[in-house]
Amino acid sequence: MLFSSYFFLYFFLPAFFILYFSFREIKYKNFFIMLFSSVFFIWGDPLFYLIALCSMIFEYFVLHQYNKGKIIKKKYVIFLLIVINILLLSYFKYGTFLISLINDIFNYQFLYASSYLPLGISFVIFQKISFIIDFYDKKVKFPKKFRYYYIYIFYFPQVIAGPIIRYKEISSQFLLRLHSTKLFYSGLTIIIFGLFKKIVLADNLALIADFVFDSPVQLPFYYYLIGTIGFSLQLYFDFSGYSDIAIGIGRCCGFDIPRNFNLPYQAKSVTEFWRRWHMSLTRWMRDYLYIRLGGNRQGKYRTYFNLWFVFFLSGLWHGAAYNFLLWGAYHGFFLTFEKIFNKLIFGRFITLVIVFHSWVIFKSESISEFLSYIKNMYDFSFHSSQIPFFIDFNPLRIFLLVGCIYFVHIRNNTNFVNNLYAIETIDQYKTYKLIFVLILSLFVTITIFNNTASPFLYFRF
Amino acid sequence: MSQLNLKVRIIVLLFFLFIPATISPILNYIESKNDFLVKKRIAKIERPNEINFDIIRDSRDFINYKATKFLDSFEAFSISVKNYIYLFIAPYRLNDSYIWSHNFGFYPIDTVKKFFNDKSDDSRYINENSLVLAELKNIETILAKKNIKFFVIKPPTKIQLLPEGIDNIFYNTKDILKKREITTNKENFLIDFESISNKYDLKDDEVFSHLGFHWNYYSSCLFTNEFLLKINLKLIDCGDYEYKNPQLTDVDIFIMHPFFGRNNFTKKLKYPNLSKDTIYNLPKIAIIGDSFTDQIIYNIIHSTHSDNLERITFYDYFDVRKKINPDGTYVNSPLVFDENLLEEIESNQVILIVMSDPNFPREINSNSFYGFHSFIKSYYAF
Asked: Could you tell me if B176 lies within 8 Å of chain A, comparing CB atoms?
């Protein structure tokens, strides 16, 4: 169920809110979260829901026994639970890739039938692993009720494309959370803002990017530059738009879901970029991979390797293909480079150039496609397109592209964005802000009905 | 807490449900009373009545269908609002598929792209055109040996005849206009705009509807007449016409892009008064073509007795066979590309291919002439 679909926006979400706010007691509110989360998941992928549910019940049972002290070899049990989750992820997400890798290496033809990628598998598995490790490390207590764990894993706003939440961030909110009209308005504002990013900005920028990336003929070099910028912005608005909707729905229900983006295209270095982009994944990678590998405590060379390796794996997390591995390695290289030359900071523009190039790897279907794209972009050939520029590109979309670049890279929006998300500023809600949100929502509504909703890019991961 | 719950529920109702749920029925009412055009974008989905493995998927599709149906009028309303906004702020790019010109109406973007591409290099265009005509000539020669007459109608596109309609700061057509006269080879089997315009004094701005991108019924009548003349049949009196508001295919694009009130955009068009008694002795005709063929068949259907209609077979994009019923409706059947089809094609006395400019090939390949070329070539060497 797409967040930008008619059914979700005009039936599912209102029905959820109305039922959720029909009861005072938190246990009923939690019940409706469970109910709607189940419907949401079954609607999208009933088979994986069953698999994830069974594995979750098994984990809950085992950890329950662990918590009661009935398990002796604790370390092995935890290891087993993690392995089960990794195997699930590997089977569904990396099966085809691993077999093709073996076939490539050994020049053999193993057959592998499954090309089925369950909805939101990476996010579900990552949250489960996060809980298991934190529980083992005694950073979280065992959930008092099964429903708390169920909501943590299947909570519908963030189950498909994040943010990746840690149990300790949300556990106290299962029992007690604040509900208020202002909080609800604030959540609604973030939802509308997220929809605007996705439907008005990302979906329009996608048409620019797709035109260039999918072109069967060679285009003038500047088309490839525009395509690169278009895709980079599309990805940002698409993903951060989804996160905003998740955060917004969470806030309406009193949950404080952490931000996933913080103006990443204003970063002054690649390291800073990763502190601002998909923050919940970066944090997960840091806590459960980088630190577990030894972090920066085992000498500088091991630190550099750990850093690079974690980002290499981050590439693999994004997709089972060579281009994603290259993408991870590319980011790992720049992060390591910055770590080696500690004081070197690329600056805003160079960082933007480095990051935008990485999105070309990300978007390309194969390494050869990436190389060909880069070659076309830097041959500075006009290949005189016979068709006027503004026939190929809708003029309004080009204005939108320029406007977006200004807003995400040049203009300092820190206050605006912080105010949007900060709970402390909710009391400052003014009439003009409400009018602004209403206009934005009208804009979004009209655009929704004019567009064929396209899936969120991060649904793939 | 209870007051909070009530407040929030009111906000939800207002915010999420008020617009579609309350405006939709009102718009449904307006739609029934007014000239408010709605495009039904979704095909009907039946309620699943069997419990099987696909029940979740089927139910999901059905629920989605009902939800979208409920919001149908609101959808049309939203599209209209957006169109109106674009009409005023950016008519030069109404949406991804069309440019809107205040003087001449809709221009499809794909035809505009092809036009600029063709005009950018005259010699290449002439060369490509010659090769295509030579291949058509080969087909004519083969069919002539089987005593089958062969003709090609090439309807023009709006951008070819009226490029000035889109001239603005974004698309400069002045340079193009300076060299718009390109003389290409002429063949007797080819019926194109140049041959018609000189003969029947058809003006550039008389060919199309304002609210569609196909040719209108008057200009298609003249092309049909020229075809009938070539197969020695009595001509339709296209000169007997009356002016009417655009209708049928003449509003096809307008309907797909709902606007408020058709009257604001109406420009009356010529509609020939066709008589059922005009065409006798209709030979057996196979017509292979695209959507521009509809008006040609319309002209023939309304100019001949119903009993003659069985003598016409329309091969839509040479993909689907369409037999015409006496009442003018079609019976469709998919084509199977085998010797029976060859026999069926060869049983005709006349074969007509209708290729509007975007479908007129620039190079010969397996898809040229809707695949008819490669089909014939698979049986006859040329």
From this structure: no
